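Following up on my earlier thread - several people asked me to post the actual chain instead of describing it. Fair enough. Here it is, all 123 residues.
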Amino acid sequence: QVQVVESGGGVVQTGGSLRLSCTASGVDFDDVAMGWFRQRPGEGREGVAAIGSNGRTAYVDSVKGRFTISADSDMATVYLHMNNMTLEDTAMYYCAAGWRGGDWYRPTEYDYWGQGTQVTVSS
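Reply from S.P.:
Thanks for posting it. Predicted structure:
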């Protein structure tokens, strides 16, 4: 049974930092990628960052230079370090596992999802 659990959300002021964690179990971690997505009210789910088992990373343009994705060596835990946060970063953040091999930023390319963790940036 696959389980994906996010943690670390909360309220932070603009310019502040937050670290999200995602723990996945029951997933085959060989040759896979894990992703972070976010969804604002009334909008679709947006790919934020992804990391592969080979260590390669990818980011959406709006977070480059501010967010960093990392993972433990066994890929069982993935982190999203968010710095210099802005109001536009406010969203529900989701962790995704079970990558199917296509575009990392497409939600349809992942089989397993966590319940999400809310991130709110206040002015």
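DSSP finds no helices and eleven strands in the chain. That should answer part of your original question.
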